[in-house]
Amino acid sequence: MSFQVFGIPVSRGVAIGRAVLVASSRIDVAHYFIAADQVDAEIARASSARDEVAAELTTLKAELPDDAPHELAALLDVHLMLLHDDALVGATRQWIVERHYNAEWALSAQLEVLARQFDEMEDDYLRERKADLEQVVERVLGALAREQGRDPRDAASVSQRDFAGEDPLLLVATDIAPADMMQFKRSVFRGFITDIGGKTSHTAIVARSMGIPAVVGTREASRLIRQDDWVIIDGDAGAVIVDPSPIVLEEYRFRQRQSELENARLARLRHKPAVTLDGEAIELHANIEQPADAVAALEAGATGVGLFRSEFLFMNREGELPSEEEQFQAYKAAVEAMHGMPVTIRTVDVGADKPLDRLTINELRHEHVLNPAMGLRAIRWSLAEPAMFRQQLRAIYRASAFGKVRLLIPMVAHLGEVRQIHEAMKRVQQQLSDAGHAYTDMELGVMIEIPAAAVMLPLLLRYVDFVSIGTNDLIQYTLAIDRADEAVAHLYDPWHPAVLHLLAGTIEQARLAGKSVSVCGEMAGDPAFTDLLLAMGLRSFSMHPAQIPSVKQRVLRADARRLSHALAQVLLSEDPRQTAELAFANLGAATGPVQ
Ligand code: PEP
Ligand code: MG
Questions:
Q1: What is the tally of structural domains in the chain?
Q2: By the 8 A CB rule, do 20 and 252 touch?
Q3: Ligand 1 atom nearest 410 alpha carbon
Q4: CA end-to-end distance (rounded Å), the chain
């Protein structure tokens, strides 16, 4: 039966496909696709893990003391029976054969299916057998985990081609950690649905960077949607339609085709310089998470990288952080790929909703975090780990010998931090000179994402060459709204007068001081804010490559000078969004295709 679930729309467009439920909160396992020629080996893996568990259970039963209650032996028999039941064995095999899931994923997918069937049973005794099934599956997963020498990441890169001709897949999960999103980035999913998260949670950001529709904060999608259900994601309305009727399906397929046509039309703007009607040249830079994203940046017509989120190099590391050499190679690859255009590399911004994996955290002994959003994150983490900070700086400096690199520091709030950064830069320059490594002087910039930094901007500007406004965090910290918490998502408001005041003030003061200023938070990539930011005097935007064409279209239709004249009334308004809509209307070219 068809039904709908609503959430927060975070990445636009329509996606239609079959639901893939991952990572039930019960059992957290690796999810990756295997290549077609690995199917038999994967089935063998699953079956040898099952044999191992069968042997374990049989030994346990044989070794039961004579006086053990006979229910124990009976329970072990039930477990053995479940272990060999075709509803588990055959169906798990089918997920591997048909969907190319790894054994752990296939097993947990089938557990989801069976657990629901148990939940629906009338008979209490049978319903309670669900716990036994979970224990059996956990044992098999344990046996699989004990296997050595496999790196799931090798298989995660299986390409879309391996699935040609199959139904598109949509990912449904309670939540997806940023690290896991990076794995999925290289995979086949055409859309994402999660129970938790807000508009600027990192899951949403990565989905946008992939340019695929996503709805987060649905609260219960992963409970209501079943494996393999047909699902439509309406990334504009924030709706998820499960098991749609043929008429609804046809309507959405039509919308999908329309948006493909629109994208193709916008793609034609790629080589057109982003200049407003009154002749202001606007920089449209790209936000990237890994060097390979530079390709998409160039394809979208980006004229530089405004934000390389280097922390993604530090994820999925299983305890071992990237060495100086590995980082250097990654930064150099991005710099070379951009062919002389500027690349702004942000030092690692871990913590809060971008945690390092558990092994790494344990290794670094930063375990106890009371309030991660306000804790040891971003530059605070780097300054607490000076050897790692210098290692990253060395890698970035070395990459600067291959193109125009700018250094960007996240979450700065104190002048003392800027002084320590300057000292670290000097020391690293000395170390590189001593070691005979080439490097060039880099411009230093700080992110303005804590209100304190915006308020004390004139002081900060004395010590830095440029600033980049991180609106995602600036809004979070100004309004005290956790950006990843769907319960307060309705209060996360970029149009809040306090946010607008900080934004306008930061842009104006940086310009007065002759320092370059850009916005690299999600506002920069949302065409709904292009006029507003132009009116504030912003001339440099950084966003996901997929967003560049529609922002460029807005720029081409805008008259920056006339927009700036309308700004004052927006800033003074009690309802800035509505005032902006009225005040900015008709200040640029009429809508319609820009040639
Ligand atoms: C921001 O806070 O706006 C920003 C760009 O940084 P991140 O989203 O990575 O925290
Ligand atoms: Mg930030």
A1: 3
A2: no
A3: 6
A4: 46
Q: String of b and e for 362-382 (b: at least 16 CB within 10 Å)?
A: eebebeeeeeebeebbbbbbb
Residue that the structure tokens 């306090």 belong to: 498
DSSP state string for 450-509: SHHHHHTHHHHHTT-SEEEE-HHHHHHHHHT--TT-GGGGGG--TT-HHHHHHHHHHHHH
Catalytic residues: 202, 520
Sign of the Cα torsion 194, 196, 202, 208 reads positive
Instruction: Show the CA angle centred on residue 280, arms to residues 276 and 282, nearest 5°.
Output: 80
Which residue's alpha carbon is at the smallest distance from atom 6 of ligand 1? Answer: 470
Q: Which domain holds residue 482?
A: 268-584
Q: What is the pLDDT of residue 429?
A: 98
Q: What is the DSSP letter of 276?
A: -
Q: Residue 542 to residues 243, 284, 335, 523: CA-CA distances in angstroms?
A: 38, 6, 16, 9
Instruction: Choose one of 520, 529, 544 to mutate for the ligand 1 pocket test, by most ligand atoms within 8 angstroms of C-beta.
Output: 520
Which numbered ligand comes closest to the C-alpha of 178?
1
Domain of 103: which CATH number?
1.10.274.10
**Final residue in a domain of this structure, among 214, 229, 264:** 264
Alpha-carbon gap, residue 398 to 433, rounded angstroms: 11
Q: Which of 350, 412, 472 to mutate to test the pocket of ligand 1 (most atoms within 8 A of CB)?
A: 472
β-pairing verdict for 305-309 and 443-448: unpaired
Ligand 1 centroid to Cα of residue 164, in Å, is 35
Q: What pLDDT shows up at residue 228?
A: 87
Last residue of a domain, one of 264, 288, 321: 264
pLDDT along the chain (595 residues), means of 10: 91 91 61 88 94 91 78 85 92 91 89 83 77 87 72 37 61 79 73 87 79 90 90 95 95 93 90 96 96 94 97 82 96 97 96 69 60 89 95 98 98 98 98 97 98 98 98 96 87 96 98 98 96 98 94 96 96 96 84 52
DSSP classification of residue 97 = I
- Residue 276 and residue 127 share a domain: no
Give the whole-angstrom CA distance, residue 288 versus residue 258.
Answer: 28
Look at residue 457 and tell me if it is in a domain: yes
Question: Which pair of structure tokens corresponds to residue 249?
Answer: 């399906």
Separation CA 354–CA 347 (nearest Å): 14
